[in-house]
Specification:
Elements: H1 9-21, E1 29-33, H2 37-40, H3 42-50, E2 53-57, H4 67-80, H5 88-104, H6 116-129
Helix pairs in contact: 1-3
């Protein structure tokens, strides 16, 4: 994640670079997004290619095609961001804490009551053994 006050391509590239820092999968990675100009930009697409990540985008403006991302964004807004932050730094801290709780401490029914990182780490270990 990367929190920014703008929606420029350079800002989403920063988020992508954070994501690939802890790259656990060496092949078959896919990044799915809507057709926002920042995701369609050459700078973003070049960064995906440099990291051997296949780009996938919705084939229109159908919000249901991006339902998973919208669900996670909704959880972040509704369950964690319970008050308006006074500064960008305060918001960054709150987002960082919320994402850590979501990934490390919040069990998910759809994951058989495991956390996302428990499942993610196990899959990463299975791929290393293969």
């Amino acid at each position: 994640h990367h929190l920014s006050t703008d929606m420029k391509a350079e800002s989403v590239v920063k988020a992508l670079k954070m994501a690939v820092k802890d790259k656990r999968y060496s092949a078959n990675a896919v990044h799915h997004s809507d057709r926002g100009s920042q995701y369609c930009s050459a700078v973003y697409q070049d960064e995906l290619q440099a990291n051997h990540i296949q780009s996938s985008m919705t084939d229109g403006y159908d919000c249901y095609q991006n339902a998973l991302a919208e669900r996670v964004n909704g959880i972040l807004k509704q369950e964690f961001l319970l008050y308006r932050c006074k500064t960008l730094e305060e918001l960054k801290r709150l987002v960082r804490e919320s994402i850590a709780i979501y990934n490390e401490m919040r069990p998910h029914l759809s994951l058989d009551m495991e956390t996302p990182n428990q499942v993610h780490n196990r899959k990463g270990q299975l791929l290393e053994l293969a």
